[in-house]
Amino acid sequence: MNKVTTYFGESYKELMEKVTWPTWGQLQQSTLIVLVATILITLVIWLMDFASNSLLKMIYSFFA
Fold first, then answer.
1. pTM
2. Distance between CA 22 and CA 28 in Å, rounded?
């Protein structure tokens, strides 16, 4: 039980003293970057899906 107590005590100490937390501005900037990247990747994947679907429908129409 002593090891568990030591672990949690050291984890709390590290969290409070050694971790550098981002500022509010940095957090907002990082969130915006992730949001824009997610939207761009979603659009690229949607475009690839749409193009491959259209191409496959055209190919299948030749054999139907």
1. 0.67
2. 10
